[in-house]
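User: Structure please.
Assistant: Input sequence and predicted structure:
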Amino acid sequence: MRVWIWFGAALFTMASAFAAEAEVLKLPAPQTTGGMPLMQALQARHSSREFAARALEPQQLANLLWAAAGVNRAASGKRTAPSARDWREIDIYVVLADGTYIYDAATHALRRVLATDVRALTGKQEFVAGAPLNLVYVADRRRMEDASAEDKDRYAAADTGFIAQNVYLYCASAGLNTVVRGLVDREALTAALKLSPQQRIILAQTVGYPP
């Protein structure tokens, strides 16, 4: 296994004795203090479809993903966003220019699943291909035990909404632009991400610095 340690703006590669092919990007510890007061963040919260092309700083990305659905109670592993029956069925796919990763909240790290740029597949709007970051929210229905198909759809949609709103509030506080999107080529993106039939793309969300 190759472990990528993200320090400042640089990536350093370390060899490991493990034989697995996975690549892991260890994020900086999230900054969980400071920021804009909640009521001001709510006042500032809005959608924007204009983004600078430059990549988010590593610390900014780390803070954003922790705010989205990071662990805020270490003893139980529970997250900043609620989850029906604690299924934690929503995976956040982090789509960047250099590849696609899954956010692992338990280790606060990114696990690479694709080494190609598939940003253009995350939406049908032109801006998604050039935006620095697209988040794709995928419900793994296999984790939703003892639920009907209708309930799986209902709860996955609600749980995605909680995460997306966390992202909105963080972006408002941090001066980032964001927009949540339902217009996604789900068939093409499902194939690119090699999702199983039990994994469903719910929404996508674009994030970046203002132009």
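Helices lie at 38-44, 58-69, 149-174, 186-193.
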